[in-house]
C-alpha cells in the first residue's frame, strides 16, 4: 500500500493499516520473545548466534538483553517494528537495573498477545491501556507488601546465587557486598589465575600515579607512603620550578614533613628540581598526576578530593596559581600512598558532615540518571568517598570461561546493589503468583468489559514467569502449577532440587527493584504497543544500530 499525496506520485513512505499492522508487529514481537524466553530460570537453555563480520567463532548467550541487542534487523518491515520495540525495551531495562530482561520479555509477550486477541474481538485499545496501567499499580503495591530487607554475608551469598547460579562467585560477592554495601566501589577484572580472588583497599584511590620513578621510597613495594600527610590539590600544569617556590617555602616554614602535589603535568625541569632537593630526614615531596580524563570527570575528582581532605582545589580554568597559597589550602589525611599507577587517601581529615551531605547528594542524583555510563561513573565517585573498595579477580580455565563469568559477575553485582538498596522478594516467580488473588478481586468487581479483560490478561501474565522457568528446566508446567496450587501461598518450583518449596524459607530471592522494574516496563510498554494503529515505513529504512559495547562469550 502506498500513501498518495498529490494523486500522481507516492511519497517516500509506506503506510500500513489494521489488521496488517497488528499481524506484522505480532510476528516480530513473538520472534524476539521466543529467542530470549529460554534463558529464564536457574536451568536456562542457551541461544547461539552465528559468526559475523569475518569472525569464525559462535557466540552463545543466556542473557536476554544481550541476545536482543545482537538482533539488528529481521525479515519483514512490519515485523521488524515489533521486534525492535521489544529489543529496545530489553536493552533499556538491562542498562537501568542490570537484570530482569527475560522476565520482562515473557510478561510483555503474554500481555501483548492476549491484548491483540481482545482488540480483534472488538475491544477498545485506549480503555484497555488505561486498565492495564491501573492493574500494574495494583501489582506493584502487592509486590511492595512482600519485600523484606537483606543483610549479612550468608543472605547476600544466597541472593547472588539466585541471580547467577554460580556458587563460588556468589560466595565472594556475598562477602564483598557485606563489606562495601550498596554503593561501595567494586572493580571486576579478569583474573590472574584459575581461581576467583578478591582484595580490599582501605580508603579511596585513583588510577593516576607518581610522575617519576625517582619518587619511589619503598623499592620492594614500588610505592611511597606518608603518615599524617599533607596534600596540595590542583589541575595546574607546572612549567617551571619557580611555580613551586611558594608551596615549598610555605611547607618548610611550617615544618610540614611530607607533601603530595597533585598536578596535571610537570616539565622535566620542575620534576628535576623536586628530585634534586629531596631531604628524607627533614622534608619529602612527591608529585602525582591529576586523576581522571576529561574536564568533567577531572573536576569531579578534584571536588571529591578537596572535600575528603579539607583542602582547596586549584583550578586552571579559574586562573588559579600557587602564588598566594596558604596553609588553609592544604588537605590532610591520616595516610597517603602512591605508586606508578595509582595514588590513594586513607582517613581524610575533611569536614565529616560536609562529606556525608556530598555523598547524599550524589546518591540522590544516582537514582535519577538513566545513562549507564554516567550512572557507573557516579557510582564510582560514591564508592570512593565512602572510604573503601574491593577488587574481584575473575579466574577460569579458559578465556571463554573467564569472559562468561566476568559478564555474569557484573550483571549479578548490579542486581545486588539494587537488592541491598530496595530490598528483595521471594524468587522463582512466586511473587507474581501471589498477585493473582487481588487481580481476581478486581476482575470480579469490574462491570466494564475492557477492565475485566485487562485484569484477565494480567492474571495470565502473572503465571508466565513461573511457567517459563518450569518449562525451561524440562518439566510440564501444567502439572507443576497444579502442585503449586495444592502447596499454598509463597511456594514456587525449585527446578534445581526438582520440588515445590517456600521461596522465602529456602532463601531464594530476587532483587525487588529488578522485579518491579521488569513488571512496570513490560506491562506499560505492551499496553502502549497495543494502541499502535498505523505503521509508517521510510522508503529506505535504516538498519538498527548496535546498542553499547559487545560483551561476548566465544566458543
Notable traits:
single chain, 555 residues, alpha/beta, GROEL, domain 1, GROEL, domain 2, GroEL, seven-stranded mixed β-sheet, three-stranded mixed β-sheet, 19 helices, 17% strand, elongated, disordered N terminus, disordered C terminus
Please tell me the total number of domains: 3
Q: Specify the CATH architecture of the largest domain.
A: Orthogonal Bundle
Question: Gap between N and C termini, in Å?
Answer: 45 Å
Oligomer: single chain
Low-confidence stretches: 1-12, 549-555
Average of pLDDT: 85
Helix fraction by DSSP (H/I, runs of at least 4)? 40-55%
Write the CATH homologous superfamily of the largest domain.
Answer: GroEL-like equatorial domain
**Structural class computed from helices and strand pairing:** alpha/beta
Instruction: Tell me the number of helical segments per DSSP (H or I, 4 or more residues long).
Output: 19
CATH class of the largest domain: Mainly Alpha
User: Shape, please?
Assistant: elongated
How much is the radius of gyration in Å? 29 Å
What CATH calls the topology of the largest domain is GROEL, domain 1
Strand runs, count: 20
Tell me what portion of residues adopts beta-strand conformation: 15-25%
Biggest sheet details: 7 strands, mixed
Amino acid at each position: 500500500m502506498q500513501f498518495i499525496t498529490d494523486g500522481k506520485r507516492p511519497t517516500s513512505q509506506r503506510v500500513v493499516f489494521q489488521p496488517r499492522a497488528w499481524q506484522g508487529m505480532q510476528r516480530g514481537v513473538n520472534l524476539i520473545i521466543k529467542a530470549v524466553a529460554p534463558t529464564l530460570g536457574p536451568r536456562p537453555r542457551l541461544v547461539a548466534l552465528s559468526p559475523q563480520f569475518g569472525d569464525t567463532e559462535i557466540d552463545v548467550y543466556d542473557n536476554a538483553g544481550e541476545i536482543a541487542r545482537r538482533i539488528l534487523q529481521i525479515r519483514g518491515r512490519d515485523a521488524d517494528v515489533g521486534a525492535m520495540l521489544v529489543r529496545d525495551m530489553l536493552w533499556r531495562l538491562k542498562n537501568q537495573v542490570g537484570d530482569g530482561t527475560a522476565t520482562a520479555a515473557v510478561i510483555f509477550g503474554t500481555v501483548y498477545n492476549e491484548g491483540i486477541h481482545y482488540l480483534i474481538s472488538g475491544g477498545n485499545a485506549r480503555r484497555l491501556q488505561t486498565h492495564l496501567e491501573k492493574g500494574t499499580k495494583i501489582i506493584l503495591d502487592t509486590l511492595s507488601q512482600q519485600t523484606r530487607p537483606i543483610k549479612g554475608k550468608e543472605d547476600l551469598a544466597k541472593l547472588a546465587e539466585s541471580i547467577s547460579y554460580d556458587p563460588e562467585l556468589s560466595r565472594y560477592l556475598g562477602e564483598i557486598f557485606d563489606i562495601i554495601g550498596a554503593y561501595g566501589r567494586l572493580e571486576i577484572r579478569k583474573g590472574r589465575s584459575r581461581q576467583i580472588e578478591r582484595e580490599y583497599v582501605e580508603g579511596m584511590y585513583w588510577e593516576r600515579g607518581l610522575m617519576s620513578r625517582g619518587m619511589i621510597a619503598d623499592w620492594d613495594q614500588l610505592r611511597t607512603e606518608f603518615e599524617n600527610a599533607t596534600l596540595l590539590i590542583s589541575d595546574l600544569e607546572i612549567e617551571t620550578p619557580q611555580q613551586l617556590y611558594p608551596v615549598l617555602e610555605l611547607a618548610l616554614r611550617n615544618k610540614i614533613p611530607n607533601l603530595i602535589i597533585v598536578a596535571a603535568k610537570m616539565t622535566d625541569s620542575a620534576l628535576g628540581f623536586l628530585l634534586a632537593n629531596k631531604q628524607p630526614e627533614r622534608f619529602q615531596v612527591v608529585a602525582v598526576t591529576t586523576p581522571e580524563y576529561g574536564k568533567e570527570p577531572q573536576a569531579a575528582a578534584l571536588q571529591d578530593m578537596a572535600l575528603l581532605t579539607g583542602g582547596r582545589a586549584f583550578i586552571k580554568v579559574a586562573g588559579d596559581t600557587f602564588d598566594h597559597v596558604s596553609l588553609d589550602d592544604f588537605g590532610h589525611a591520616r595516610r597517603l600512598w602512591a605508586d606508578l599507577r595509582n595514588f590513594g587517601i586513607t582517613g581524610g581529615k575533611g569536614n565529616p558532615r560536609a562529606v556525608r551531605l556530598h555523598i547524599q547528594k550524589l546518591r540522590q542524583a544516582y537514582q535519577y540518571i538513566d545513562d549507564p555510563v554516567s550512572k557507573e561513573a557516579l557510582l564510582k565517585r560514591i564508592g570512593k568517598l565512602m572510604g573503601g573498595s574491593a577488587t574481584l579477580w575473575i579466574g577460569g580455565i579458559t578465556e571463554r570461561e573467564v569472559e562468561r563469568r566476568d559478564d555474569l559477575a557484573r550483571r549479578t553485582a548490579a542486581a545486588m546493589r539494587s537488592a541491598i538498596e530496595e530490598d528483595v522478594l521471594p524468587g522463582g516467580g512466586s511473587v507474581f503468583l501471589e498477585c493473582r488473588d487481588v487481580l481476581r478481586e478486581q476482575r470480579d468487581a469490574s462491570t466494564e468489559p475492557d477492565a475485566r479483560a485487562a485484569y484477565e490478561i494480567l492474571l495470565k501474565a502473572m503465571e508466565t514467569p513461573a511457567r517459563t522457568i518450569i518449562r525451561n528446566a524440562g518439566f510440564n508446567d501444567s502439572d507443576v502449577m497444579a502442585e503449586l496450587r495444592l502447596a499454598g501461598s509463597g511456594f514456587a518450583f525449585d527446578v534445581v532440587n526438582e520440588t515445590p518449596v517456600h521461596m522465602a524459607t529456602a532463601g531464594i530471592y530476587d532483587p525487588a527493584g529488578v522485579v518491579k522494574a521488569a513488571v512496570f516496563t513490560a506491562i506499560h510498554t505492551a499496553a502502549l504497543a497495543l494502541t499502535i494503529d498505523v505503521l509508517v515505513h521510510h522508503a529506505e529504512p535504516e538498519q538498527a544500530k548496535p546498542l553499547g559495547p559487545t560483551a561476548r562469550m566465544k566458543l
